[in-house]
Amino acid sequence: MSIKFTDADGFDQGAQGADLAVVLVSRQDIEALRIGSVVERLMLFSDSAKHVHQFAGRMVIQVDGYDEDPRPLVLIPEVRRFFRSVDSHWSYWIHFLIPDVDQIQLILLMLVDVQAETAQPGQVGFSLLDSAQLDEVIQRLRGAMETLHHAFQVPTSHAELMMSAVVRAVG
Fold first, then answer.
1. Closest Cα partner for 148 from 31, 45, 27?
2. Are 93 and 100 within 8 A, CB to CB?
């Protein structure tokens, strides 16, 4: 497997033959609420039939710069605010994210209100402040995915795979 780094300007060339896309989100962009670059990069995936098919279930979101922060990302207000702002412009997460519980949970928990709970000593879990909010977010994201699938003739089997991953993620 080859790894290629690219930005929005070199995306088409850099994406050729890629099996996985890692979208890096920096702490500097998060703290300044600069969503433009991230939204622009994400739109490159959803604005092209080729990329919609190529990267279906093949995207990972990586947040950089919070390794020294002891708080889970979903409890950092500026991180939640950033992802909610990005989501207001681009909501195709379920189509593109790898069908991995951790990746799907990360995005879903960024988009709903949660509080920390101690699951076991040394482990932090989360509880929803409003379970209806999670249902609404999932339905909205599913609708965005279905719109994308209709526009680019994505097989229904992909929607089934991804919604099954969402069900696993929400437990």
1. 45
2. no
Strand partners, 124: 118
pLDDT per residue over 128-169, tens digit each? Answer: 889 899 999 999 999 999 999 999 999 999 999 999 999 999
- Give the Cα separation of 134 and 137 in Å (integer): 5
Would you list the DSSP string of 129-169?
A: S-HHHHHHHHHHHHHHHHHHHHHHT--HHHHHHHHHHHHHH
What is d(CA 81, CA 121) in angstroms, rounded to the nearest whole number? 29
Cα separation, 112 vs 74, whole angstroms: 9
Instruction: Note the pLDDT tens digit of each residue in 110-132.
Output: 999 998 887 666 667 788 889 89
Q: Provide the 10 A C-beta neighbour count for residue 126.
A: 16
Closest CA to 117 of 129, 106, 108, 105: 129
> In residues, how long is the chain?
171
CA separation for the pair 150, 158 (Å, rounded): 12
- Whether the Cβ atoms of residue 23 and residue 59 lie closer than 8 Å to each other: yes
